[in-house]
Amino acid sequence: MEVKNITVLGAGTMGHGIAQAAIAAGFNVVLYDVTQEFVDKGVARIRKSFAKRVEKGKLTQEQVDATMALLKTATDLKEAAKDADFVIEAVPEDIELKKKIFAELDKVCKAEAILASNTSVLPVTAIAGATERKDKVVGTHFFNPAAVMKLVEVVMPIGVAPETIEIAFAVCKKMGKVPVKTKDTPGFIVNRLLGPLYMDAAQMVLEGTATAEDIDTAMKLGAGHPMGPCELADFGGFDVIQMAQDAVFAYTHSESSKLNILYRKMLEAGRLGVKNGKGFYDYLPDGTKKPFKIFG
Ligand SMILES: NC(=O)c1ccc[n+]([C@@H]2O[C@H](COP(=O)([O-])OP(=O)(O)OC[C@H]3O[C@@H](n4cnc5c(N)ncnc54)[C@H](O)[C@@H]3O)[C@@H](O)[C@H]2O)c1
Question: Could you tell me the CA-to-CA distances from 42 to 38, 71, 89, 156 in Å, in that order?
């Protein structure tokens, strides 16, 4: 099956970026959210991102207008999904919500449509279980910002058909992404491997081995990482890290995956990372950041 029509569910951080990458690749896209206000916010973020590319001379206004013409919006799920060949769900990370949406999609979508979830840590097999088309459900784990980041982890739940994986790969590649296959286990590849790095970095800060800033400098210059582990943890968000680590630890029981107490304490102190300007660093209104003094 050749995918032409993509429906993206959820116009938030990930959904708007995925929709942007999809229209930029020439797909017809319907962006769906529960209210027109949320949909409009997502569309405004896409427009803003394209406007920056026009400013930088990477795109012309005519190209942007032609691309934006491929984007439709909807607040009615049936209307949004009835013509879709491929649906990408990017609603909040809540298993009951995702199961409910997939059960509804199963009823309103064409029989041959493929249903993909952008979940970070939830079991795609359980999400597929809410449908009668378990062979046509797959994970497509995009990374933030989705319009820019190249990787997509294509997650294979139990019972998925090889053709579903092939189609997911073709969609990702047409979007300019690099897909990799992973079985449906918590954390997939990237978050499972990043977890121990985040945990050890926090433990070193707690022990006073080195400051967060020096750990970041060391890993950037010594290991060639583009961002240090503390900066990257701030970017990912401590609430998200907590959820991911709890899920990975429940599966692996590996000490290296167990949530470090420092993240729990940071969360208790209302520090979420970049999203509220408070993490290992304080993010200042002028766009700079300074290390946060954790213990006075
Ligand atoms: N933010 C990240 O860095 C990141 C990275 C990879 C994967 N993810 C995953 O992507 C998914 C979305 O995360 P996000 O950060 O974009 O969340 P978000 O909160 O920014 O956006 C979620 C959107 O879904 C909408 N929504 C809520 N209920 C809905 C429903 N019933 N139907 C349709 N839309 C609904 C909300 O209004 C909101 O616009 C989650 O599963 C998350 O784990 C997030």
Answer: 6, 11, 14, 28
